[in-house]
Amino acid sequence: xxxxxxxxxxxxxxxxxxxxxxxxxxxxxxxxxxxxxxxxxxxxxxxxxxxxxxxxxxxxxxxxxxxxxxxxxx
Length: 74
Description:
Elements: H1 2-11, H2 14-34, H3 37-40, H4 48-68
Helix pairs in contact: 1-2, 2-4
């Protein structure tokens, strides 16, 4: 799903691509919180709450940056 965000960012509106990526990070945080350790797979890197905090922080930061960076003149 992150690849879809990268493709959208590269081919059309970069803000929408970054929003997709931030949504995927938020979804991964919810999955990491909900799934048991044995089913988390590659999402289980560290302790559960640290993983969730990192994924949410990255997702929120990307979303806020995409919203607040002003358009540049061409």
